[in-house]
Structures
1.
Amino acid sequence: MKAFINTLKIDFLIANRNFFFLIIIGVAFGYVLTVNFLVPKELGFQNGGKYFVDNTDIKKPTFYLKISGYSNLLINNEEELYERINSEKNSLGIVFDNNGGELVVQGYESDRMLNNMKASLYAFETSGMNVSENIQVEYLNDFNDKVPFNQKFIPMLMAFDILLISFMFIPVMVFQEKKEGSINAYKVTPAGSIHYMFSKIAVGIVLSAIFSYIFILFTMGANADYLKITFYTVISSIILSNIGLIIAQFYSSISEFVVPFFLVTLMFFLPAVKLFSPSFNFPGIELIPSYPLLIEMDKLVSGETTAFFDLNFWILILEAVVILIITFFLLKKRLLKNR
Amino acid sequence: MIKVNNLYHKYKGNDVYAVKDVGFYIDKGEIYGFLGPSGAGKSTVQKILCGILNVQKGNVKYNDTEIKKMKGSFFEKIGVSFEFPNLYEKLTGYENLNFFRGLFKSETEDPNLLLERVGLSDSANKKVKDYSKGMKQRLVFARSIINKPEILFLDEPLSGLDPTTAKNIKNIINEKRKLGTTIFLTTHNMYVADELCDRVAFLNEGEIIASDTPKNLKLKYGTSSIKIEYKTEQKKNDELLFIEKEEDKNRFKEIIDKYEIITLHSGEATLEEIFIKLTGRELI
């Protein structure tokens, strides 16, 4: 235990002297500023499309759109309308019928925005149609209505930063030890692979946790589910630190590490595509460690309550156990031969 | 204490053995020197002895126990000073020693005392990246004895050190021997080997070609030599010639006849001269 604590102390000291903690805190606050002030809380429709279907007998909406020069916004039927606004994530649709109409929205629009939309249909009411009073709202996606648009970036930013912290900083420390040769001096001490491995993982976990807590506290506030956030941060960091430790053994410098780094980053990015475009899918995407993290963070952001020990939990636990075993044996066989 | 038999080692991707049929023993409290030029296989043998490289063929025994069967406790007993400084550059000298000290369960030295002994107390709180090569070498040596090892592996421990510091380190090595530490020293410096070692082995192209005390080696292989310095048209040259060898005798005559002699010295054979005589190679 004394040797492990000693190794841990030195790894934290070296991480600190490499400014890892400062970098993490800086990046976390950078993300906080981006989410809170640069990304809008509501997605405006000024630039997004508004599409119309006219199912009324007298076709007055068609008439108004034509004389206003917007006949290109008319869609033939509801099926085509749904298809169109599903493919354009900042668009909405309005279906007019004899009794009023239906506002088809993405699901993340605020109540204020929907009320504004209804009020803007006043023109049709004055023309003898009772649209604004009888209009129904149809949500394409269930975003619980309450999630501000800027918070939808939180899962992706969080998953990516944990990836960068654990998968980049840990190999950087290994490359540094290889370059200065200190790893060879470590090999001829009684401290073995277990100490080495868990010490590096601990650095990854603490860095990731610092990032997660700052980022979540200043974007979602103090009422977020910190137990779940802690678990998913820790387990994701364990998996990614280990992947970093495994790959770092086959390379000797950060410049050689660039190619595997980008390949792994690309792989971890794929679940984020699925998050924003649910139709994107391929077999096994759920097994990519960033997937459960993204999904669980997305549920947290949208306020969806799910069981703690769900499938994502067990997938990550299993992956962590498997990768810990692989890392341990590889460390013994390669980096810390015979130890 | 240490017994090595029929040791062979081949590196991956290389058909030639780096170490071939090496065998020797080292008694407790003895300094055993491995003398050979760069690439002779000295460091490979040291790496096998201290467990960094696997034994591929042959065997290495510590007190009759195979090194393969030694557990982590083996590393409690050994100290290793590498040829090239391998320190945590972002840590200070003190932090480096203190870190390694904390990895051992056994009794250890006080890092401050060790720093003082190797003349680094003024730089104890300076980051290692700002140390000179000699300072790093001293720190690596200090680190190798932090755990009061029973067996000490020293790879070129005096390389790059000024004479005063080198003398200081030699004193520490001798003190350790007196305390019963077994020392395996690899070097290409014949003076270091002659001065420090109880016995030496000459290693050439992975093989031991001779092994004995420096005195016995000199008696067995040493012949009087002549170092001759002469002037050709463009530059000064010097050569070491062994008079008992016919070709050297002829060469001596040729130089006397053809060139202007500057100096001429006769002397007792040194370990280097014996090595050259046995291998035809210099200890570089």
2.
Amino acid sequence: MPAPQLGTPCSHCGLAVPPALLASEGNPSFCCSGCATAHEILRTNGLAQYYAFRERRLTAVRSSGRSFEEFDHPAFAELYVQAEGEGRATTELYLEGVHCASCVWLVERVPLLMPGVVRAELDVRRALARVEWDPRRLPLSQVARTLDQLGYTPHPFRGVARDAMRRHEDRAMLARIGVAGAIAGNVMLPALALYSGEFAGMEAAYTGFFRWVSLALTIPALLFPGRVFFTGAMAALRTRRLHMDLPIALALGAGFVRGAINTIADTGPIYFDGVTILIFLLLTGRFLQQRGQRAAVDAAELLYSLAPDSARVLEADGIERTLPASALLPGMLVRVRAGESFAADGTLVEGETSVNAALLTGESRPVSARIGDVVHAGTLNVAAPVTMRVEEAGTTSRLARLLRQVAESSARRAPVVAYADRLAGWFVATVLVLAAVTFVLWVGRDSAAAWDHAIALLIVTCPCALALATPLAVTVAIGRAARAGIYIKGGDALEQLAHAGHLVLDKTGTVTEGQTTVVTWQGDDAARALVLALEAGSSHPIAEGFRRAWPAGAVLAAESVTHIVGGGIVGRVAGRDVVVGSPRFVALHAPGGAGTVVRGLDASLTPVLVAVDGVVVARAGLGDRIREDAAAALASLRQRGWRTTLLSGDDPAVAASVGAALGFEATEAIGGATPEEKLARVTAWRAAGGPVVMVGDGVNDAAAIAAAHVGIGVLGGAEACLASADAYLTAPGLEPLVRLVTGAERTMRVIRRNMAWALTYNLIGVALAMTGMISPLIAAVMMPISSLTVVLGSWLGRTFEPVAGAAPSGVVPMATLPARAAA
Amino acid sequence: MSVLFVVLPLALLLVAVAVWAYIWSARGGQFDDLDTPAVRMLHDDEE
């Protein structure tokens, strides 16, 4: 999050206000028109107390300014809107830019802004707003426009139906866990009384009473929460596969039946305490794991929400109509204004502009596009309004194909789970064989004892501690990491990051700052004021780079300014002819100064010449600065054995130059990679073995990020990229990456320690049960203690440490990580 | 007869009530979103 800069802060977002926009004394000043609009909405509706929140968004309001007409289209309603009673309707909108307490306040005040809205509820973690409104009083597009003006650009969310189903599932699981926990706790109480009775002696009437009470409590535990294990075991039997549920169901069933027989006969152990605790702990472990695994599904859903969703179609009668992007057909003519994204793939039929494809390819410099050139969905029209003929729309566009690849790669990535399943199979087989062996060994001597020993073994080896060891350690670590400003979606990522592998980094925005600025300036410093005056009104990236580098603002005024697309800018400032542009363009306009062109500018920079009255006076190198901590972070990771590769969509020469500056080997700095090529390379490296970690920030990295073993998104990344990433760093730079790797190593150490404890307990338990040494008392003590060690081990293990300057506790994490497991 | 035979079932009855209340709140969606309400309550004092 950018810190407030010196100078007058914007009255809405707190960023510095450019001098040109400073208001007169006593009036609020704004850094941009977006902030001014948002401030006006809040003020006129009596919501000015928004500014009292200490913890607010410190980013300028960037509204898309769209009309959101397509939100009122019948096709839209059919896909995304659910009808409610009394003529009301609800929909879920995915909001960009939601991340803190003030966002909840603001979004939920929308009904006050617009009387037709009945309710707006925001789930801050997933950035989903549930809006209930009255379509007869107010079109949804108006709600969308207001949210957009406040800086939360809305996108329709497709997962509404699945979301409802999952919520139902979650609630049922929570109810099960609660019941199992309550019963386990209450069975423990008579069990404790019975155990102490064995030592101190107890009247038979009390013993019998406690045993019957335990039996009465265990029956509902098996019937309601415990049923999942029996249905799971049945399914495993039907598909003839060894599943964890099988020995669990066997232990639960055998333990209960044997306990019930013993209760009726009033002799021998009853096992009810073990059975109920088992149900409770296993359900808890399963719930924690399940929450972690949902990330992939959520990611795919969010990606679809982010694809451009409307287009302005030029109809045969010459009228423009806004249609949902899904309604576009090949052959339609679409108008795209400057600053808008293309909604489909197509060819330009009218106009000339430059296109920023950074979203798709990572190329940081805009390319010019003329009539006949192909443009892709998702790329940004930078310079001028154009008309395009649609060639590929909807699911066949390049962007849609890319997003589909992301979804597929996300779904495919589950080798760790598969491994755990195989391991569980072996565990199950071993336990079953051992129980059978125990039974056979004892059945000759005493058939009643044989039953008891076999059941004792099943219960004592039950994988409570094993089942808790990994999810618990991972959940605790993820919670700590979130407090340190690193958001991790699942345990797999931690597991993979703990071992040195192959680290692939995107260039633009990842190892560099991702914004064009003036990196070198040679020549007359006095010319700076002339350049600023000329570029003041331009939205071209080069102009923005100059303004970013010299934020003081223009003091002089320029006249008769002309932009030449793909060349530069010409005008008169303070009575002098000023030309700013590419060397070729300037040479054309200032033939007298060609001699001063100096060669040898770094290949990663765009050369811009400045000519005054026909003489070249200065040369600026504009480019993307390398992040300050990149070199140190990379050195530290290389020292730990990581292989590092720079994989950029930018020009190969640029990639090579940045790679050389950061100590990448020449063969490890790859440029000119399209998103498809990035995906192909990452897949190839994956196949070659060893964990592949992809770090990036753009949609062009999204497929590669999803395909890698671990994908990491960095601060300021595109939402599509963040959605497909396994981890997200909220602090700028690469230093948090080092912290992530360190934390992952420590978490794995905690997990290994947990596993060792759990296995040791199981081995001792098996030995005791097979030799017939295990009394119900020992079993009752060993079970909770083994689980307790694991809980304590996970809790006390040092994994991620909070760092100074990280998000303070209490800040709700970025919503772009939907299914972050709760700590 | 000890008082235990009366008190223990009574205690279990209380547990049953608590469990029922818990299931009711879980099914009603009280535990769906644990992050937002914590933030929301900070803001509800005005209006």
